[in-house]
């Protein structure tokens, strides 16, 4: 939407036009007209107060989670520096590992409220739960663990635990040189973060989880173990896992039951003779899946009572102050209009910039920075798209995995700039050596993947041999030497035993391994 169009849309709904013209028409209805304006302004003020309170609460939540994530990451790094502990972890010695880490866990639990302390093997099989040593040997498939395995870096975020509680988790890959020993995971419940919002903002909080993400029996057992009420049937779609009040009032049920939108601002409720405002904010885990909602309520009684008193006082003086008030309202509303127009214009400008940045980020996310060809992310996305088509259309899908022979020697002898130049030239010649429908991608280092849609075994071997022949004629000069085209090529065509695209790539990788084993500079089909 163009900026001018956005401004015109807002101008049609300006506060000044909506209020001043009706007020002029009902000028003789002094008390009623004036009260209507004040009530309208009170609503705007309430919504603004509610929105600010919600924004501040969410900021405190996000800042606190970031702060605790940094703390957990720092603790994890300190823990794995313990040589005795690392030796026990490397030797998979569960008993010794427990003895060395038990006191650490008890200290962290007492001082920092750490509730989860894990050691996982390199294949993500749990080796030891320090907080629950009797349970081990299960496969860990949580998002943070998968992300730590994928990136080989620390992964952090909140995840929904088996007991139906939110846990902030940090997973650290433990390396010894280039070898992965396993993963250290620390976690803590986020109730103390919610308590911080409750105290700082003087609000009442509740957290709900959608039942589709929970097992009824496990959740009820978990709530009982944690000393909380397990009211599974209280609401149709959600359950309460946390509330700052001793018991969650029935008068606030509408906040849990409302599913009309992502947020409900200034939801008004009466409870024990007081007026409350409620708001709803969606809660997502680290994977981005919306699993629950944060409910924030605050006592608006004093502000409302103050408003009623103000109305009574103004009613007595409305006739005398009509002209002054009318002028004052005109000024205030005009300024409000100006602010709305300015903010809307900025919002439209920001959206245009955001869309532009999003397109650039999307391009960068799927392009290899060095060679300018598609990267690993794009390669796997493409295979994911071709995979179901291969099922439904019975069209074969194949790939070639290419490894540059002697590349390490180029890097070690002539430097990384020379190595980068070799990779760039190799990528360019690979692109010139394939068919129009084939897709050349760089997986990383000196590994390239060529995706060949609708290609059978004979066709793939023909393509592979053609590429191998052309690269064999390639010589890339570098400062002080040259790289003479030599590549080890692994070829693989999807079979019925391959369930995922990764299986196809692994098969091609085995072909590269065979080619290396057979003396390099050759093509091997798996």
What are the key terms here?
alpha+beta, Beta-Lactamase, 4 domains, 6-stranded mixed beta sheet, 5-stranded antiparallel beta sheet, 16 helices, disordered N terminus
- The general outline is extended
Q: Taking Cα atoms only, what radius of gyration do you get, to the nearest Å? A: 32 Å
Side by side, the strands of the main sheet go: 11-13-14-12-17-18
Number of domains: 4
Number of helices: 16
Provide the CATH top-level class of the largest domain: Alpha Beta
Cα-to-Cα separation, first versus last residue: 53 Å
Examine the coordinates and then state which fold CATH places here, giving the name of the CATH topology of the largest domain.
Alpha-Beta Plaits
Q: How many beta-strand segments?
A: 18
Main sheet makeup: 6 strands, mixed
Give the helix proportion (percent range): 40-55%
Measured by DSSP, the beta-strand proportion falls in 15-25%
Task: Give the overall pLDDT as a whole number.
Answer: 84
Structural class: alpha+beta
What does this protein look like?
The protein is α+β, with helices and mostly antiparallel strands. It has four domains: 3-42 and 306-354, no CATH class; 80-186, PAS domain (Beta-Lactamase), CATH 3.30.450.20; 202-303, Beta-Lactamase (2-Layer Sandwich), CATH 3.30.450; 374-525, 2-Layer Sandwich (Alpha-Beta Plaits). The chain has 16 helices and 18 strands. It has helices at residues 3-11, 15-25, 30-79, 83-90, 94-112, 143-151, 191-201, 216-225, 253-257, 301-317, 322-365, 376-393, 407-414, 416-433, 457-472, 501-517; strands at 116-121, 126-129, 155-160, 166-176, 179-189, 204-210, 238-243, 267-271, 274-284, 290-299, 374-375, 397-404, 439-444, 447-453, 475-478, 481-484, 487-493, 523-525. Helix 14 (416-433) crosses helix 15. The longest helix has 50 residues, at 30-79. Residues 1-12 have low confidence and may be disordered.
């Amino acid at each position: 939407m163009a900026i001018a169009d956005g401004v015109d849309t807002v101008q049609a709904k300006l506060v000044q036009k909506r209020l001043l013209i009706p007020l002029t028409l009902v000028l003789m209805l002094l008390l009623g007209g004036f009260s209507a304006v004040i009530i309208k302004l009170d609503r705007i003020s309430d919504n603004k107060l509610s929105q600010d309170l919600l924004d501040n609460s969410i900021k405190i939540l996000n800042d606190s989670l970031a702060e605790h994530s940094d703390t957990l990451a720092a603790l994890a790094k300190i823990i794995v520096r313990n040589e005795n502990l690392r030796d026990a972890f490397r030797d998979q010695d569960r008993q010794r590992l427990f003895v060395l880490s038990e006191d650490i866990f008890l200290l962290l639990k007492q001082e920092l409220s750490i509730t989860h302390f894990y050691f996982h093997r390199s294949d993500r099989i749990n080796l030891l739960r320090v907080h629950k040593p009797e349970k081990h040997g299960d496969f860990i498939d949580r998002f943070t663990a998968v992300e730590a395995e994928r990136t080989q870096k620390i992964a952090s975020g909140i995840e929904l635990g088996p007991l139906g509680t939110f846990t902030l988790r940090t997973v650290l890959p433990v390396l010894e040189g280039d070898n992965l020993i396993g993963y250290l995971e620390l976690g803590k419940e986020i109730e103390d973060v919610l308590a911080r919002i409750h105290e700082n903002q003087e609000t009442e909080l509740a957290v709900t989880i959608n039942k589709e993400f929970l097992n009824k029996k496990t959740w009820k057992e978990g709530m009982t173990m944690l000393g909380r009420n397990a009211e599974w049937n209280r609401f149709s779609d959600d359950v309460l896992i946390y509330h700052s009040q001793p018991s969650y009032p029935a008068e606030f049920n509408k906040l849990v039951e409302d599913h009309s939108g992502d947020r409900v601002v200034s939801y008004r409720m009466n409870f024990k003779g007081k007026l409350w405002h409620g708001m709803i904010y969606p809660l997502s885990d680290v994977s981005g899946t919306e699993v629950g909602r944060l409910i924030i309520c605050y006592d608006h009684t004093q502000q409302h009572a103050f408003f009623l008193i103000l109305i009574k006082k103004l009613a007595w003086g409305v006739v005398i102050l009509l002209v002054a008030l009318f002028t004052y309202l005109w000024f205030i509303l005009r300024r409000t209009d100006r602010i709305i127009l300015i903010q809307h214009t900025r919002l439209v400008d920001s959206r245009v910039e955001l869309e532009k940045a999003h397109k650039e980020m999307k391009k960068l996310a799927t392009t290899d920075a060095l060679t300018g060809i598609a990267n690993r992310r794009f390669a796997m996305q493409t295979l994911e798209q071709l995979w179901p088509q291969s099922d439904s259309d019975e069209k074969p899908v194949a790939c070639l995995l290419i490894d540059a022979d002697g590349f390490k020697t180029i890097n070690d002898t002539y430097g990384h700039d020379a190595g980068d130049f070799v990779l760039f030239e190799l990528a360019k010649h690979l692109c010139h050596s394939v068919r129009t429908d084939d897709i050349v991608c760089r997986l990383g280092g000196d590994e390239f993947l060529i995706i060949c849609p609708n290609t059978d075994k004979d066709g793939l071997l023909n393509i592979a041999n053609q590429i191998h022949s052309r690269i064999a004629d390639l010589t890339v000069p570098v400062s002080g030497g040259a790289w003479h085209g030599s590549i080890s090529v692994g070829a693989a065509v999807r079979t019925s035993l391959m369930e995922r695209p990764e299986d196809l790539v692994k098969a091609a990788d085995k072909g590269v391994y065979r080619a290396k084993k057979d003396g390099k500079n050759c093509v091997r089909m798996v």
